[in-house]
Protein 1
Amino acid sequence: MDLLAESVQTIKGIGPKKAKLLAQLGIYTLGDALYLFPRDYEKYGSVTSIASMQRNQKVSLCVKFQGKPQIIRKGKNKSILRWQAKDNTGTVVCVWFNQPYRANQYKEDISYYVYGKAVMGYGQIQIQNPQVEEYRPEIHNKERWDPIYPLVEGLTQSDLRNLIKETLKILEDNIIDDLPIIVRQKFALCEKKYAINNIHFPMHDKALEWSRRRLVFEELFFMQMALYAIKENLGASKKGLRFSWSNKELENFIKKLPFPLTGAQKRVTKEILDDLKKDVPMNRLVYGDVGSGKTVVAVIALYVAFLAGYQGVMMAPTEILARQHYKTLKELLDGLKINISLLIGGIGNKEKEQIKAKISKGEIDIVIATHAVLQEDVEFNKLGLVITDEQHRFGVRQRATILQKGKINPHMLVMSATPIPRTLALIFYGDLDISLIDELPPGRKPVKTYHVPSSMRQRVYGFIRKQAELGYQTYLVCPLIEESEKIPVQSAVELYDSLKDGALFDLRLGLIHGKMKGEEKDEIMSEFQEGEIDVLISTTVIEVGVNVANANLMVIENAERFGLAQLHQLRGRVGRSDSQAYCVLIADVKNRIARERMNIMVKTNNGFEIAHKDLELRGPGEFLGVKQHGLPEFKIANLIRDMDILKEVQAAAQWIMKLDDTMEKQRILDKAYTKIFSNLGEIVFN
Ligand code: ADP
Ligand code: MG
């Protein structure tokens, strides 16, 4: 029987009620409990003497209480309890606030362990609100770390400590060390059993350090290897489709594009075409900052797939973006007898079925889709190329899903504008070859960015009006109030209503948000595109990919509530022509970090610089959220704090990939893949 899968209710003290609370922490089984890592520790030193106490330091003492406790009542529930305690070096006063019951708890002649902070009060040194336990030398007369776990209401630290202590006892011999021994030895990592025991109840400082390093290492290692596994499975070992096409037709097409390609676009196009000629599947990331012109590169690749006789699919994270791509492709590929279809949630079921049927018969050449296309009943006749736009929204999981479909082995191209520091790129994109579009189309001027307090909102409206008079359009993005989806929609609707009858009554306003029907969104976006709307009031649905060149002003309300990456993406919606563009961040900043975040946006348009600053200010959580990349969340690793371990892990992973023992290498890859991706389940999109 698998003990790890046993319910937590097998532990004494955990009944249905506590089990329910534990479930809120994601803990159902003993195995789950084992992997609930402490968020912090309380450190207790070994027992010292009263004579050696220092002010403002935490002390552990072994004392007896002396004489009568003194209780001073200070009104209904208020009291001060003072009690003298002594050891063989001297005496000290223990003071408790509002805990009068303690006066009855401790007996003379018994030694107690007392732990608390030594402070000065009434001219003498005292210990305030100390913890007291009956003294047991085997526990108290040594250094001790008590784990502090995340809690929910109704659970206490001692519930969790007890649960985990008991679990450790039961599971002691069931902790399997699956980190390959060669890795453990080469990188001097402690054993899993030791690590698990000591991450919960460390024996000493070093034990905690070793254990943490070992567990972080393991977590990052399997993640890295799983990504390599995807690459191996998609790549080298599998046969791909060797495309062949007429260069003349392709050149003609490129010549007829509305603009000449930039040097960077040409280079990246060539890298892609070289991949497509090979009989191993392409697995490439095109990274380029917002506005660098990734779409046209994707269109060229899709056209090549068509010329080679294959179907192509391009996936976008939002319907708005999918619809926009659909339009762009229709225009750019006009007159070439290519059947292009849009497959998104917003179209009717009947139409959807028709499109799917045509896709499976091979009557449609290029499909533009949201994730709907990934659903199992979409079958391609001859799928040759899969492109995902704004990869950071799609993530690794989807790539793994496509892989799991098994039958198909198409070329894969992912595009992203999310800047990511080099060291981290390897873990997120370790399975991809990377192409960089590091040049903007000619004539682009950096967006001028201003940070203003909300008291200047009327002047911002004046600026919007002025831009409208000059014939330009504005995006006005509403505050993001909280994660919940309803609220931003509400705030957009409210802002729209108040501006329509108020400050901007004389302009043509439009409203767009995620809760609108597909066609409605489509209509509004076309009106905005056609210049029939001066100001588009919006939630963050327009965050990624939207391209309306005549819009040159981006106003963001409550900008302090957005992540820097998001602000950068939003700002990327303007500055898409050669006219000067502006971005106004309305934000009342209340602290240094918020101010610095606004400053960095004002100072630079460079996505990489912004990424670095964001990391510095907030850590990787939000900016490089693992979630964002479609990977499971880390349980213990922290990509900033553990950068050094990450580097070691990467060295380890590369070493494994070069192993002569290919059986061992394959075994490790398979294990990692299963560990990370086996319970993919339903893919959840937002
Ligand atoms: P992103 O990289 O953010 O996806 P897009 O592909 O949306 O950027 O391109 C941004 C804008 O730049 C579009 O209007 C596109 O038509 C235009 N564009 C792309 N490449 C060039 C180029 N080489 N010269 C001029 N304009 C270009
Ligand atoms: Mg784009």
Note: The longest helix spans residues 205-234.
Protein 2
Amino acid sequence: MEKFEILGARELNGKIKINGAKNALLPIMTSTLLAPGNYSLNNVPDLKDTRTMAELLRRIGASVSFKNNQLLINTVNVSKPVAPYDLVKTMRASFYVLGPLLGRLGHAEVSLPGGCAWGPRPVDIHIEALKKLGVNISLEGGNIVAKGNPIGNNIKFKFPSVGATGNLMMASVLGKGQTILKNVALEPDIISLGDFLIKMGADIKGLGTSELVINGKDRLNPVDEFDIIPDRIEAGTFLIAGAMCGGSIEIENVNPDHISIVIDKLIESGVRVKTVKNSIIVNGNKKIKPVNVTTAPYPGFPTDLQAQWIAYMTIANGLSTVTDEIYYDRFTHVPELNRLGANITMNKNTATIIGVSNLKGAPVMSTDIRASASLILASLASIGKSKISRIYHIDRGYEKIENRLKKVGADITRS
Ligand code: UD1
């Protein structure tokens, strides 16, 4: 199994280009199932999840090729509307095929995603909403079997779930009549999915607000060119790396509006942040001020940067708290960060971090995508050598992270 070796405490300086957003890409890939034809997606990150989703689309009957960060998808043949367990268990976003397959075929079978490394992740909001669209849903052999063509209805989500919003948008655009979705997610990934669906010919009003009005169409058209938006989580991760390691990092190809809360928090922590069009420059500061964060749905502080922020606060000058209000159990990185010399204690979904003057390199183990990112950040800031094992997690969400960090001066090798 591959691991990273990092020799830490080196200043980082230079430019890093941000790639396309995984969480925008995955539902856009499944939405190509809605209308038969040829699609071309650009700025596609070369991730394990991209390849897993490509494999899922192939099993359903599509043909997919991926080269030079461009995906070519043909969905003329969609013959087997099944997302099997072996793929769903490695990537929960496989659940995104449910909505479009119902729209196109009125039939989908998707393995029920179990929990994940950091606790239960239910899909009840998706299921309840699809039932309201008249879809018949049963559980057979661990698979959700959904049958019926969606019929418009009014739905108010009890929580603005990203996945349920995406799935229901995709289920409704070919549905019969009007669907009104209330309390929807506002994440840029969902807005981008909406833009893509509108480009396919979907009638969606209210994109960017918490209420969507969708008038079902009889058919949609394929989209021959679409650019995946920049990944705000990747951007936030590299900004925190710059803030932690001193020096000056410029991240390019980013939409600063998508991470304004992260920029505000970084400034509060005492680092200088400058935004120029699609670039953000962060200048590290040796004295980091402690800054509390609580995660919330967009435009709040993203749960996908919670682990990285905790890593940052381990070397702040004082006490801070980080609370995760989206995923209460998403803290598997905490004991690993403590192995590097951090002083973090947990109480329910709140981490209390007392900053230490130095972290010290150690062997640690990554447990999920963002936990891995936090361990890389902490190791980069540690004195001495760290070894991070199980790094296959990081390859799910960050394209060749070690090469990009090396370019700005990090001593990191994969072995
Ligand atoms: C997406 C992101 C993930 C991010 C998360 C929250 C993708 C592929 N993944 O995941 O990186 O961490 O948003 O920003 O885009 N919930 C329910 N029932 C449901 C659905 C969700 O109770 O049916 C709960 C979840 O347990 C969680 C919260 O709602 O507590 C948010 O989940 P959701 O927004 O659905 O996240 P995902 O779409 O799974």
Note: The chain is about 30% helix and 25% strand.
Protein 3
Amino acid sequence: MGLLEGKRALITGIANEKSIAYGIAKAFYREGADLAFTYANEKLKKRVEEVAQEFGSKLVFECDVSKDEHIKGVSQWLSKEWGSLDILVHSIAFAPKEEFKGGVIDTSREGFKIAMDISVYSLIALTRELLPLMEGREGSIITLSYYGAEKVVPHYNVMGIAKAALECTVRYLAYDIAKKGHRINAISAGPIKTLAAYSITGFHLLMEHTMKVNPFGRAITIEEVGDTAVFLCSPWARAITGEVIHVDNGYHIMGVFGREEEIKRE
Ligand code: 0WD
């Protein structure tokens, strides 16, 4: 029997089969969860429908998280389709491309607002609207963060600020929803080549560096993120909430970067 047998999960943030949310959906499906999906806009509809079909689902709904009516719409749709929900996967982030070019000092007011709205506020709004569906079901919510929330990653800029706010939001929401028996955690994933990643100036250099210097010396995969998400949404993680779990091959533990064979002793 799968770890998520009998659980109903809503997956947001699939753009294609390279998306982190796709890796999570794949792992959830393997573990027996029933899946529903949202897509951000018409352009992504067909792709997300194909993904849903691949994972035995017909449940696909448009949700641009910058629109309150879309977020409310998801809740009404799921309440009609399922009447309940156990898991929400929030795998959404956005900032205009120009914001990744210079430094944080160049951040525009509009870029800042957009990054915080799409990447952070959306988690609060989705959680609030979907909470009634989780009543009595010990729900679990997952969001995706990145190390740029903790340390300076050149060009990550306003998204680093947004991810710091996201991680803090996870802690506050964890407190709020614990009253109802629900949990929320963030996975801080190492860099992965996805559509979103390619908007970041110099992403390939960042990827190369991270792969070279993390203790395992390799990149992480969306399947590895998926497996961690399964654990966090399973009863095995029932006492874990408000946490940020790094799925980065140990990159974040390093103080001096370089694998043993590369740091030559005098
Ligand atoms: O290296 C990476 N790829 C990492 C990503 C490392 C660590 C964390 N993350 C995070 C991202 O910041 C994001 O929160 O993982 C999450 C998922 O990102 P992803 O899988 O890397 O990227 P992608 O496949 O592009 O999915 C992000 C999706 C959007 O795709 P596009 O490429 O169309 O922007 O976020 C969704 C959309 O599907 N999205 C929205 N969804 C609803 N409403 C909106 C919106 N307004 N804007 C973006």
Note: The first strand starts at residue 8 and ends at 11.
Protein 4
Amino acid sequence: MSIIKENTMKDYPVKKNEEQIVTILDLSHEGMGIAKVDGYLLFIENALPEEEVRVRIEKIGPKFGFAKVLEWLKESPYREEDAKEELLRTGIAPLSHLTYEKQLSFKQEQVTNVLKKIAHMPDVTVSPTIAMEQPSHYRNKAQIPVQKINGQLTTGFYRKHSHTLIPLEDFYIQDPAIDEAISEIRDILQRFGVKAYNEEAHEGFLRHIIIRRGHYSHQMMVILVTRKPKFFQADKIAEVIKEMLPEVVSIIQNVNEEKTNVIMGPTNRVLYGKSYIEDQLLGKTFRISAQSFYQVNTEQAEKLYQVAMDFAQLSKNDTVVDAYSGIGTIGLSLADKVDHVYGMEIVAEAVKDAQTNAAINGITNATYLEGKAEKIMHQWAREEVQPTVVFVDPPRKGLDASFIDATCEMQPERVVYISCNPATMARDVKLFAEKGYQLEKVQPVDLFPQTVHVECVGLLTRVKD
Ligand code: SAH
């Protein structure tokens, strides 16, 4: 066995630390340049299609390896000149070296490719990605790890695939008011002698600083994620934060005692103000609590929801399901246009937000339940709820097959699929197709400029027999 392994090792056409000159053939879905040496695949950071680069081989595996650019011999005409290395290296903005136009077509192609390869639907129309006008400084939420470096509390971002912190103050894709607040809060906590969490030893105190800022309201929430509940001088610290940052309406301590990569723990304690912020979306007001999901790019989320509503061709007779509803943003945005909205969501706090949001906006024809979408959909099917339109907006892993079964049993005219992961959407639309729903068209919307994340909306219609 070991002989076989040794032999294959010897057969690699490249060796570690050796230099090679290669031409980049394609861009991986993670934004890495792809090259081949005698059929062996190399992934190369900061390298774009058609570029010719001199690289050093850094890592070799059985199927592919990684290399680092030493010199660009020929540059792509689509290279964005002033891209910052640390933004590529941290994965904050792994496409920021590619012109925005090309980022948009890259995303459109990603969707076309998965529909072809996974769903076997090569003929579905995938429209050009809807762009953001100013594609930077858009994130309304930041989750920033804290570490002790040279005796100082330091904020920044992890190097890709690692937990090595690269110090950063300008995060480029975040609301600049959030960037400033992070530095300010870090300095206040340093003055109070707050200790950074040490991941390896699982000791220390402050793990993350999370900030949310309403795009329209400018209301700010600060969440300090700590390893232990006991927070020395918490009230005093909250007072100083509030004084230095007048937009802050909510300061929360979130306790995460586990040794885990999951950022937030289960318990929250309000240190100052309210337990939520409010913001506007398509003219309605939404309350957003600490644990609730909220799209990070408000301007583009409005376009996304608009596309979803247009696809749905809503009328007053429609009964709508808003599945994976979060704080109810989709269902409540369209409640005026339809007869009734039924929504469900797994996070209890978000469901409460959705119910409150219906009330705040004077909406009386929306029902939101807490629970797993796949379970509640079956329950509604048994109760003979008859939706005409079903919106789904699941997390990256996509839909549960039994959710698709229940939906098809209810025979809605249209299913509008909002996806943050085209690969799982492609898998799911194939299941829908087997049950008589045809994918008519797909519209990508750029919710995450400068990153490789792709968001899109697909319209499925029921084929009449
Ligand atoms: N539609 C909302 C939220 C979309 S994010 C918006 O646009 O803001 C996906 C949501 O699905 C999250 O709120 C997450 O908590 C929820 N979720 C994840 N798994 C779920 C499941 N099995 N059942 C119901 N909701 C789920």
Note: The pocket of S-adenosyl-L-homocysteine is lined by residues 293-295, 324-326, 329-330, 344-347, 350, 372-373, 393-395 (CB under 6 Å).
